Amino acid sequence: MKKTLSIFVAILSLSLVLSSSIFASPSPRAQINEEEIRILHEQTYDLVMQGKEDLVDSQPLVKKYKEIFEQNPELYVEYLSTLDIYNSIELNKQVTDESSFTYTAKGNRVIKMPDGSFIVEHQSLKNNEGIEIKPETNTGGGVSLFAVLQDTGWQSYSASTGHNFTNDARHDFWGVWKTQELHLVTKGKVQNTYIEITSTSTVGTSAWFPGKVASQSSSIVTNNARNVESTGDYNITGVIQEITYSKQIKITTKIRLDSASGGNVSYSIRSIVEGP
Question: Which superkingdom is the protein from (predicted)?
């Protein structure tokens, strides 16, 4: 009888231990707090707007959710799939409304989505000495195509005939942290009657956990004309615990010769990002 009672007590104790362990360890999904995600989006947005991008990873909530998502990558894939920056319908509403654009302290245009995720454009033009040239005017996007994720609009520049340039069309995608950074680098020369693109590349392109840049390529579409064009194609993928996601993104840089007179030229550059 005593032996039977001892066995019963042992089983009951083990059951209580197991039960307490189960209740002490909430499911991974239960660790995701929608209000915290919203707050984190706002905190990340504020830091980027202030030009303090390097401080994003030090935020307590970023550290918390990086740990959660690294331990449960399927939840991160699910989180990415819900972001408005990857929703073409939501993006189309934003890119057609100039009043929805904001600008960082460094002058980069930002599209902020209703859920707090956002895209930052960096259109950087440099001469052959590597000195950055600021645009004289920016006409804005004015695009209403369904697949357009971002449009810098036409940015105008002036230089002397034979001017060499390097244009870096960079576009950053942000959620709780930066998910990807895409570059289309176009080098060329502006002459009196035409523009020559000498080379293109995607140098600087990166993606962060759990995504990767599966492929990237750039090419010259139109050259040695008053209107020239380059393009970059990017395939962002991720395969985690049998969960697969893939996003095809394209950047097009258009350059046009506006006028030439007295040894000087005026030209404009526009960068358009298209996605799923």
Answer: Bacteria
